[in-house]
Amino acid sequence: MSQQISVRIDGQLCTATEGQTIFQVAQANGRYIPSLCHMEGLSSAGSCRLCLVEVQGIGRLLPACTTPVRSGMSVTTNSEDIAHNRLMALELLFSERNHICAVCVSNGHCELQDLAQTLGLNHVRFPYNYPRLPVDVSHPRFVLDHNRCILCTRCVRVCDEIEGAHVWDVAGRGINSRLVSDLDRPWGESQSCTSCGKCVQVCPTGALVEKGRAVEEMTKRNAVVTQLAAKRETHL
Amino acid sequence: MRTIVIDPVTRIEGHAKITIHLDADGYVADTAFHVTQLRGFEKFTEGRPFYEMPAITARICGICPISHLLASVKACDAIMSVRIPPTATKLRELLHCGQIVQSHALSFFHLSAPDLLLGFDSDPARRNVIGVIEDHPELAKEGIALRKFGQQVIEGLAKERIHPSWTVPGGVNAPLDRAVRDRILAGLPEAKAIAMRTMGFFKGVVDQFKEEIASFGTAPTMYAGMVDEGGNLQLYNGKVRFVDAAGNIVVDQMEAADYARYIGEAAVPYSYLKAPYFKPLGFPEGIYRVGPLARLNVATRCGTPAADVEFEEYHQRYGRVVESSFHFHYARLIEIIYALERMETLLNDPSILDRHVRAEAGVNALEGVGIAEAPRGILIHHYKVNEEGAITWANLIIATGHNNLAISRSIDQVARHFIDGKKMKEGMINRVSAVVRAYDPCLSCSTHAANQFPLEIRLLDADGSLLESVRN
Ligand code: SF4
Ligand code: FES
């Protein structure tokens, strides 16, 4: 039986179970922490840096989705410094690839766009990178548009952890990182893909979408994946 | 040789510039209308799924987004090889009628009315829509109301005024609400009454502009526009007909996919906008015009009662083929009436509320062409895709492109008329810009700027040094 511990979140004393992340405890206690790569039901990757929080006694910000709580820990979920860093992380995501909301099939149903609104992002201070990236339309039912991928790896995790097919991986380093299917062959030629579409449903942006959706028409149902994961937990 | 350059000093996308070359004696030798247009279009969209094209094209040429949407979805329909549900066809036409009404109303009341009402040579500071509102408040109010009606039709259908995502390959993405239909129907009588009153007003003043009519691009050209099998005017659903300068039908019911057999595209050195010409006649003899004037020269009739009465009178006044580009204004008013009447017919058809409005399909053809009549004339979208549906090649011919040669020719004519020896006559800038505006070219500068059409005429001598510079 895991041990009950107590932590402070924004001054409020909260009871937590050992092994929980700051993100989980904060959420259970009604504190909002923005997140993008994190998804309930999947393991945490800590790649987007939007959930940064302050932990007393530690000189740098930590991602709430990957940092486990410790007894006596005191966490601040919002401050000027935190807001500044989160905004910067978001701006960098926007500047890295080509997120042109106006012509995107996910316009109006995009977690990246929603977050920009929530965090009050109204301009990007960094020069845009405008990379020339391909669109993989080789799959009969789905499309991967690298221009809109933020490398959150939700698709990688859902395919590996829930579907068990492990089609997706990230290849390359740094700014050259790219999502690849089946060790870098066109998605349509993938032999491991079961065409279940889970990756499409969890992708926060318009990077993975259903074929044939016109602008603004792509809505995602990622709650399905969370439910699946929860059901599996109870079954086990 | 002297060169007069008329150069709008502001605006980026779609930037127009007029150069008038004078010969040694100070007479007009040649005129060129330069347009800087977005190029590299195919590079921009290469590799993208074809069904994203409607939204993309509607955004890059932002002045008549709905026309681009319609030409684009028609090209996509062709790639999918589907016949879209009949109600979807009607709904698309309805949307288009809303666009025609709002665009023509804007063009007439905001851009042309100042010249027509206040006079071409009136004080430039007042020769704008504000001046019209001050001097003719009733007319201005009606113009605004009519434009708003067109916008409300678009909003009612597409839920978004500027770049509706409602029009999709295969049809439209939601059926028409009964309440929206009833609301549009309720507004129609007033809109029609305004259109008729404006028509009456226009016919009352048009005879004051004999000089302009005579000099506004009256050179004979061919004309191209869309009609149905019976020769009735069509804005969304017809096929292209070409007539010669005398009004004889040269090509009728051209299939969209055959456009390249009849339309050639010449690259001209002074403009990024290619100059389309009627192929069988060659370049530049195959000069033709598109848009309201051309459509009414091409059509045998409008096919709706009130518009046909006006159509008859118009042709009685000016002949079977109306040449002067000045009459773009007149033709636009007739088309507003036509569009309102079409809306009425479409909305009173019970099948307009049918729920089946979208056909689904993948790639069934590797090429597709879509043609629609934009407010300013024929608009062609032509795409090629690979088997997976990624765009490999794209070509757009926009209305201003078709008119490119004719616009240059019209300016040339005005310039000859208004350049006297080595000097520009008073009012020349105004008339040159008015001629360009009559075509209503889709350049942001000419459309937004009303009578502040930002022009600069620079008089250059043979080696390019500035002799004189005039701004309006
Ligand atoms: S494709 Fe979507 S889910 Fe996968 S890494 Fe990119 S943004 Fe995340
Ligand atoms: S949500 Fe924690 S790093 Fe992305």
Describe the structure.
The complex is a heterodimer of chains A (236) and B (472). Chain A is of the alpha+beta class. Chain A has six helices and ten strands. Chain A has helices spanning 22-28, 80-96, 111-118, 154-163, 198-202, 223-235; strands spanning 4-9, 12-17, 52-55, 62-63, 74-76, 135-136, 142-145, 168-171, 178-181, 208-210. A five-stranded mixed beta sheet of chain A has the order 2-1-5-3-4, sandwiched between helices. Chain A has a three-stranded antiparallel beta sheet with strand order 6-7-10. The longest helix of chain A is centred in the middle third of the chain and has 17 residues, at 80-96. Chain A starts with a strand and ends with a helix. The mean pLDDT of chain A is 94. By secondary structure, chain B is α+β, with helices and mostly antiparallel strands. The longest helix of chain B has 33 residues, at 86-118. The interface between A and B is medium-sized, with 17 and 19 residues. Bound molecules: iron/sulfur cluster and FE2/S2 (inorganic) cluster (FES).
